[in-house]
Recover the amino acids of this structure.
């Protein structure tokens, strides 16, 4: 049947099972929006800013495992998506961004709102397309969804000239081809070598990253951990892949990881790295990382092997498939003495914070107590680390956060996406006051959509994490990190359509959180805490992770100096 390009776009979205699109209209994409108007089966969420749309598509994808979709017009509309696309790229999140451009005859002429968005996004997408021929439109959109889902997921951009959206073409519906996990490049010898390494290890440690979440490998991972009989640590992106309430779980590894995880990995004789990319925040000093251990890495992307750390053996393939294969052959291991040693570390070095007044860690623990099944979203900074440390993630896709790019302003948009995709779940965004200032306009989106998400602002009137570094490593020179002004977050929140609270005590926070959960409307809780609060443990830049220090270590050091 003959359809316009705009109709083809909508039909292709329906082919791919898309039920929600986040976006913002404009001149070049008007034809698409005019067609979308006729299809209420696709929910469109109008955000306050295109960046909010890209983060919302990201949050939708992270919380569901499905492809998130965002749309924007040409020029600044398209460029406003860039940060959100880069955020998704760094964390391997499947997203399709659809933009429209000026007509083909106007390309390359510096026309009004013309921009080469396909060129701009080439380094931050798995693939970027520009469609100048309507006959290629349907296949391009189908390819975009396939690429976004396939192997290691990621964002794909499709830029479509305005004349293509108006032109007619013959369209035939196709059933979507959902890429299946491939076996990868491993063979039985790779599996046998992995099993051999595991069987010989006396002190194995399992290290879990975001690849285990993306693969949907939680069940296989649980079996593997039981079979290996080893302690487990994770990355920020790996939270929830393994049950955070398990006795053998020791917390996060790296710069703000637990002392137990950092010391344990430094002492182990085999580090089994599953779906991790060995980022600098994990490694500390790479020359001193896990020096006593052989390293076995399991990952779908061969580019991650020997990139940041040299490994002894790798199995390249989908994590779920690889673990299934190993679990089927690996005999039960026993490491009672090693597990007991790690358990002693856990008793010796628990996560602690001063039990005086309202603090970030206290709020996270209270949120866990009152809403343990919530989807937690975070911005980036001290509050993000506290959310990683003090909330116990029992399931995958329950912590949504910008790990690789570290995008301030990510959380509120992502929370909108997650709440839209999961209307029956409680979604809570943990924000810092600096982050809240970046995209607070999206509260209007949450209110307009009547999304019952809760925004908890950990407000210390400073850029907390940057100030922490200034305090510890820059001689307390607080250059441009103090936010003392008269901005009233409660009034702002209420002006944008949300219920606002301001709290400064433990009792006030408990009462506000309880009421916010019960109200089932968009709520903001502005929580005033001490600006001197810091995230501990911490590894200094360039130091080995075994040199992690906490509050007590710092106090002892200062006394001795």
């Amino acid at each position: 049947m003959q359809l316009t390009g705009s109709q083809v776009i909508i039909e292709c979205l329906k082919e791919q099972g898309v039920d929600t699109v986040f976006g913002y209209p404009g001149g070049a994409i008007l034809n698409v929006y005019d067609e979308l108007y006729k299809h209420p089966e696709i929910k469109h969420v109008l955000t306050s800013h295109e960046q909010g749309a890209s983060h919302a598509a990201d949050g939708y994808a992270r919380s569901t495992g499905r492809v998130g979709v965002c749309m924007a017009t040409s020029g600044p509309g398209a460029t406003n998506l860039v940060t959100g696309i880069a955020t998704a790229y760094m964390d391997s999140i499947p997203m399709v961004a659809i933009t429209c451009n000026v007509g083909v005859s106007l390309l390359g002429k510096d026309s009004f709102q013309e921009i080469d968005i396909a060129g701009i996004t080439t380094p931050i997408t798995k693939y970027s397309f520009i469609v100048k021929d309507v006959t290629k439109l349907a296949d391009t959109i189908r390819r975009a969804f396939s690429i976004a889902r396939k192997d290691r997921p990621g964002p794909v951009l499709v830029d479509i000239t305005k004349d293509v959206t108006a032109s007619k073409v013959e369209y035939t519906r196709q059933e979507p081809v959902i890429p299946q996990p491939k076996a990868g490049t491993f063979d039985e010898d790779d599996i046998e070598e992995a099993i051999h390494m595991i069987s010989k290890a006396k002190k194995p440690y399992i290290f879990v990253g975001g690849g285990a979440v993306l693969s949907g490998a939680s069940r296989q991972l649980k079996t593997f951990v039981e079979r290996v009989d080893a302690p487990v640590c994770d990355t920020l992106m790996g939270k929830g892949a393994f049950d955070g309430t398990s006795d053998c779980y020791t917390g996060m590894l790296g710069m703000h990881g637990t002392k137990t995880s950092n010391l344990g990995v430094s002492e182990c004789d085999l580090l089994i790295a599953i779906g991790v990319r060995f980022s600098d925040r994990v490694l500390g000093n790479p020359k001193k990382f896990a020096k006593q251990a052989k390293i076995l890495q399991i990952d779908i992307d061969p580019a991650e092997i020997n990139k940041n750390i040299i490994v002894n053996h790798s199995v390249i393939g989908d994590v779920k498939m690889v673990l299934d294969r190993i679990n089927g052959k690996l005999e039960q291991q026993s490491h009672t003495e090693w597990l007991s040693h790690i358990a002693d570390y856990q008793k010796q070095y628990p996560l602690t914070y001063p039990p005086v007044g309202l603090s970030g860690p206290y709020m996270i623990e209270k949120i866990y107590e009152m809403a343990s099944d919530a989807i937690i979203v975070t911005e980036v900074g001290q509050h993000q680390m506290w959310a990683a440390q003090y909330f116990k993630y029992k399931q995958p896709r329950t912590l949504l956060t910008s790990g690789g790019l570290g995008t301030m302003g990510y959380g509120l948009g992502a929370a909108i996406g997650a709440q839209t995709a999961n209307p029956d779940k409680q979604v809570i965004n943990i924000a810092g006051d600096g982050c809240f200032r970046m995209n607070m306009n999206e509260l209007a989106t949450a209110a307009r959509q009547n999304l019952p998400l809760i925004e908890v602002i950990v407000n210390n009137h400073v850029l907390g994490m940057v100030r922490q570094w200034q305090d510890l490593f820059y001689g307390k020179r607080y250059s441009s990190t103090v936010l003392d002004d008269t901005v009233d977050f409660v009034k702002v929140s209420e002006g944008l359509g949300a219920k606002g609270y301001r709290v400064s005590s433990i009792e006030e926070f408990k009462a506000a959180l309880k009421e916010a959960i019960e109200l089932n409307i968009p709520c903001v809780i502005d929580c005033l805490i001490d600006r001197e609060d810091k995230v501990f443990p911490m590894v200094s830049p360039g130091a080995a992770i075994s040199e992690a220090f906490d509050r007590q270590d710092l106090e002892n050091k200062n006394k001795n100096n």
